[in-house]
Amino acid sequence: MSYLRIGDVDLYHEVAGDGEPVLLLHGGFCSLESLRAQSDALVTGYRVYAFERPGHGRSADIDEEYGYARGLADTLAYLDAVAAGPVHVIGYSDGAIIGLLLALDHPERVRSLTAISANLDPSGFSSPDPALDDRPAAPRPDVERMHYDRLSPDGPEHADAVVAKLLRLWNREPRIDPGDLARIAAPVLIMSGDRDMIRPGHSLLMAASIPGAQLCIVPGTSHYLVDERPELISVILRDFLRSAGGPAR
Question: Is residue 68 part of a domain?
Answer without folding.
Answer: yes
